[in-house]
Amino acid sequence: MLLSIDPSLRGTGFAVLEGTDAKVRCLEYGVIHNKPALSIAACLKNIHERLTEVIEKYHPEVMALEQIIYVKSLSVAIVMGSARGVALLAAAQAGLSIYEYPPRRIKQAVVGRGGAAKDQVGFMVRALLGLRETPSSDAADAIAVGLTHLRAMATVLPSNVKVSKTKN
Q1: How far apart are CA 16 and CA 27, in angstroms?
Q2: Residue 139 domain boundaries
Q3: What is the CATH number of the domain that holds 59?
Q4: Which residues are catalytic?
Q5: pLDDT by residue (tens digit) across 109-129?
Q6: What Å distances lie between residue 128 and 110, 119, 159, CA to CA?
Q7: How do residues 1-46 score in pLDDT, each as one tens digit?
Q8: In angstroms, what CA-CA distances link 78 with 2, 72, 81, 109?
Q9: Of 42-46, 65-69, 75-79, highest mean pLDDT
Q10: Which is nearest to 52 in space by CA: 96, 101, 11, 1?
Q11: Tally of domains in the chain
């Protein structure tokens, strides 16, 4: 079982998937919303608590998440890194193996094009999993991270694809 994350301070997407690349079942997906009025610390606490609850409910063995993306603003990078950090902490505390994938690799794996738009990712996630509705972009991105991981585990990765793994 796999927990996949698209970390963000105000809208962390998550998904719990099981199966293989050939047959995937999505057990739960959603977004951890934090209101703009909440302090950064309160947001980080909420993300950590909610992810810990999901981990305790489903007992995944693995967490996959998007690698840090390039942003022009140092303050945005720090806040995004903090959200990523609490997700990594929740996984590390539970002893999950952690895999990270670059954003272009995720889009390539799900849509077939590394420069795909968010709506294309959502459409493909819905189609690939046979969902009745298209998930919000944060949830769809988290599902896409999970699908990328399952696909990566099912195939031999080319030498030019970098996948980071951390084992606790």
Answers
A1: 5
A2: 2-166
A3: 3.30.420.10
A4: 6, 66, 138
A5: 999 888 888 889 999 999 999
A6: 9, 14, 26
A7: 999 999 999 999 999 999 887 789 999 999 999 999 999 999 999 9
A8: 26, 11, 5, 28
A9: 42-46
A10: 96
A11: 1
